[in-house]
Design goal:
With 210 residues, the protein is α/β, with parallel strands linked by helices. The protein has one domain: Rossmann fold (3-Layer(aba) Sandwich), CATH 3.40.50. It is 38% helix and 21% strand. The protein is built from six helices and nine strands, in the order βαβαβββββαβαααβ. The longest helix is centred in the last third of the chain and has 21 residues. The radius of gyration is 16 Å and the shape is globular. The mean pLDDT is 96.
């Protein structure tokens, strides 16, 4: 069994639908479904106490944690309108885990804190993540979730999955440029350059199996 915890801010006034679509993309593509224990934490429940309680139910077992929400300019926290739910102050909860987030600036400080606290691997954004063109939200989501969904298939390590994501980004950027959708292509290029990985890039899915 593999523990997959997904926190997503579907209550966000601007990007709630976007974050929910990211959640559905990941949770709907795990194969085989019976191999995963999925714990979904919606926006109103993305609070420090609710997160702590959800993770404590796993009794210290390793997990994959995905967060689709906002970060902050300093890169130290993940938050919703309810407040901060992941920060450098509770990064110890993710000891032995694989942490994946598309939140703005999350790789600036939070990613380093997670790794220092024993997180096995972190993928996140080293600067703002852009998603201005609503006509291509599905493309943005597929690109930025590609490494996580590739990893969940279970036949590559996380470093290979990350590199495959970079290649997928490039293919979509080229496709949009060929369609003369320059604005969306520029934002995708920005997001591609924002994605960072740190920690054990040789991590494989079975390392997180319990």
């Amino acid at each position: 069994m593999i523990n997959l915890v997904i926190a997503y801010d579907d209550n966000d006034g601007l990007l709630g639908d976007y974050f929910e679509s990211s959640h559905l993309s990941v949770s709907g593509n795990v194969q085989p479904p019976g191999r995963f224990r999925i714990i979904s934490i919606r926006g109103l429940d993305c609070t420090r106490p609710d997160l702590d309680a959800a993770i404590k139910t796993l009794n210290g077992e390793p997990l994959i944690f995905a967060a689709f929400c906002h970060g902050d300019p300093d890169g130290t926290v993940l938050h919703t309108d309810n407040g901060v739910f992941v920060s450098v102050h509770n990064s110890h909860l993710f000891n032995g885990s694989f942490f994946y987030t598309t939140a703005c600036n999350s790789a600036v400080e939070l990613g380093r804190s997670l790794i220092d606290s024993g997180c096995s691997c972190f993928i996140g954004c080293g600067k703002d993540s852009l998603a201005s063109d609503v006509n291509f939200h599905d493309v943005y989501i597929r690109c930025e979730n590609y490494a996580l969904e590739r990893f969940l298939i279970g036949n590559v390590n996380v470093g290979v999955a990350f590199n495959d994501m970079m290649d997928y980004f490039t293919g979509e950027i080229d496709r949009l440029n060929n369609l003369n959708e320059v604005f969306a292509a520029v934002e995708l290029l920005h997001n591609r350059e924002a994605m960072e990985i740190t920690g054990n890039t040789n991590l494989i899915l079975t390392d997180l199996e319990v």
